[in-house]
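Suppose a colleague, Dr. K., hands you the sequence of a protein chain of 787 amino acids and asks what its three-dimensional shape might be. Before reaching for any lab equipment, you can write down a predicted structure in token form. Begin with the sequence itself:
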Amino acid sequence: MHTQAIFELSQEAERLLQLALQNLNSLKATSFTTQNDENNAGQSQMGPVVPSAFCPHTLQQQQAMLQNELRKITQNEMVLAIVGTVKAGKSTTINAIIGTEVLPNRNRPMTALPTLIRHTPGQREPVLHFPYVQPIDQLMHTLQLRLQQTDRATLGRHLEIDRDMAALLTRITEGESFAKHYLGAQPIFHCLKSLNDLVRLSKALDVAFPFKAYAAIEHVPVIEVEFVHLAGINEGYGQLTLLDTPGPNEAGQPHLKKMLQEQLAQASAVLAVLDYTQLKSVSDEDVRKAILGTGSSVPLYALVNKFDQKDRNGDDEEQIKALISGTLMKGMIEPSHVFPVSSMWGYLANRARHELALHTQLPNPDEHRWVQDFADAALGRRWQRDDLADSDIVRQAAELLWQDSQFAEPIKKVLHAAHANASMYALRSACQKLLNYTQGAEEYLNFRCQGLRIASEQLQQNIAAIEEDMSLAAESQQSASAAARSNVNQAVQAMGDFIRRYEQQINANVADYFQQGMVPEKLTRQAMSFGTRRGVDFDARDETLNFDDEPSAQIALHRIRASCEIILTAAQEKMNEELMHLFSYLEVELADTLRNILKPIESRVSQGLAQAGFRTHFNLPVFHVGLLNFNAHKAFNELIEEQDIPVAQLRRPAGMRGTVARWLNSEEWGWEGYTVMQSRYVISLPDVQRKLCEHVASFLLQLNRTLAMQIENAVSEGMTAFFADFSQTLDAIRLNLQQSLLARQQNEDAVMALRQRLELCVRTTRYIHEDTRLLRDDIQTLFTVEQ
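The predicted structure, expressed as tokens, is then:
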């Protein structure tokens, strides 16, 4: 590690950050940034107004961002933010990364507040520090008063009062506050669970939870513990810290989305935990949107959890990487940064290995539930206690489970790399955010300087023109919506046409199958992808298949279903591809529609729009290909008919004749005929074909309706959001012009002094930007050498 080089680069980054903070303080002293917030946060005829980039409120946010980067630089701290949905297994993933259980894992949102988890060599037992506990104590006091006025039965109708919640209610009633330090896993569990339950309780009692008090990263709880995967590794130059963030949809608190975005903006890198079984779900889409909102300022990684639930028809590792990198994350993440894993297997395997290394055996499974979970996963559900007594067998099972978890690769490429290069990650993050800040600041300041050079009359004309453009934008929205509806109708019609075409093709392939008794030859390649060569399933000359016992009939029906699934899967893959092309074409059409309609407005305010960083581009939400998943199992239910048929039998008659025949053991005489009813199991092939075709028709009809509704809702919501952003951008330009007009109305000496201060700020900003760009290049060169 080039320790001296990193030290010198850190000194330079610290200097530039301090200079940027001084420049912000200079901006605070200018007249146009000290105006009342009412000038920047009012309501206009066009809707809510975007605050000026350097109004007092946003100045404070930018100052907090720069101070956070300065803190990370001085402490050489790399913050890896981890984000995921409630059911993606985020807590389990963090426990797997750390190598021991430090976060509670319940089937409900568990991250009420962002939580830092800092790798601390030698700290075997985790300790939680919560020094900024005053807002929580104030909340507890408010809840205590509210509970005195609330009946427990009434509260129970709005809140699930389990054992943990009951304990919290008792704690609030007795006035017990939160401690500032917790030592050990169980006390930490209790603290974090109580914080989560406080969020639920506050919502039920209509009391505001103090989320804003914990927006600053230095105010959130901190867990210090040695990461098992980093134990014994030579110390890198810097500090590695994980940031457990609340998901955008946790605890039913919509404003957590904003908190998530603020926390991600403070991170040095972001690790997304996605659910393999829910990759196209709405909740996972919320996470992806939040991550994409960070832009290119931080490196992105993704762990695709629950990959152990992949079946033979599921996407493999390469397909998952391509799907997330190219389609779901729109090229913002490299395929090599996507890791399909099983976090649960990784956590259990590594904890077992760690226990064996320390104590040569696992603890009592009756006292430690994780041991039972490990045995189930590594030894099978029929494991016995004696199996755990053999440390060699357990160690081998743990190693195999660790390999199956596929967790070794992200541990090496993400955790070890972050630990070894923590200071450089912090430097790179600070440089990127400084570049973003200086670019925006320079554009804004140039705009304000230009406003001071223009006569008041010209500024008034520009303001009037902007207001006229805002009215025109409102009128254009109606035209754009009508044109968009036309695009949508065409897309929906095209989608319906090709779905009907595929229904005909599927029915034709199904008919061929039942005429031949085997998968059509043209689908042989698809059949081979299932890992087996399909032969003849039945004699196509027969309309019914008869069996003497039900298991034989079930096996035959299963074989038919497997062949039919091949036909459906082949169609599904082609339909997926065509639907993706259809959605891409619709997105291009909508973008062209917006550009054409807004072109007259944009041409008039192009300079202002460019300075505001606005781009007229419309993005549809990612197509939920998970909707297209044939499940034909229901079509094969109750297709085996049990029938009773008469069967002729022979028996010895009663009486002397039968007795003599048995004595003589005669085969020729002494018998009489009789009839019995015997069960047989029948599969009607025409009924199977009919039910399958009915299933396909019903499924495709529902698919057509669902996709049509999805397209219409997405375009409607997207169009509304687009014009809201467009109008807000015009309004922000109008506000800037109005502020310039106010400044211009001062006496010439005051205007000249303000202009000189602004020009000095511009020069300083350009200087910071250029030096930061050079610093970024030096850091990237050193980064390349180290890797």
